Amino acid sequence: MNRQAAWELMCEFTQNESLRRHMHCVELAMRAYARQFGEDETKWGIVGLLHDFDYERWPNPPDHPLQGARILAERGYPDDVIYAIKSHVDGLPDCPRQSRLDHTLFACDELCGFITAVALVRPDGLLGMKAKSVRKKMKQKSFAEKVNREDILRGVEPLGIELNEHIQFVIDALTPHAEELNLVPVAP
Hints:
The protein has helices spanning 3-13, 17-37, 41-50, 63-74, 79-87, 100-121, 131-138, 149-156, 163-174. By secondary structure, the protein is mainly α. The chain has a single domain (3-177), classed as Orthogonal Bundle (Hypothetical protein af1432), CATH 1.10.3210.
């Protein structure tokens, strides 16, 4: 399993640049948590990078993520990687989140999408973003309305981390990559 092969697989199935950026953001957050938890950074990053690779072709559960899981199995990805990706979608039978990997992916997925949305409307993008400003935007129902706030709140609980700490951790994981994510200050 290597990152380049995972990137190529993701690009093969995903043309939408926003969706690619989302998966890259989740990859970066997962890598940061892997470092914090003493886990395999490459594996955790690949889980983040590939978690939605099938979404553009099969956006509705259970096709997403089961079609992707089938493809990953055919290409030899480990069972725990496939399981974590399957478990990030609520409501799949026989696929509850069990491991720290599963829970962390779920905790990072919607939050990364929301942080990206906040960065896109801030003059400074990701730079200088604080958890407080993300929490304030979460209260605004019309902002990034497709992001499930309940998933953000539920996702952090099994990690045993306070929500503001989790939000700031993810912001801090993404900020060094703001330029490659195109989440930098907007030119006047």
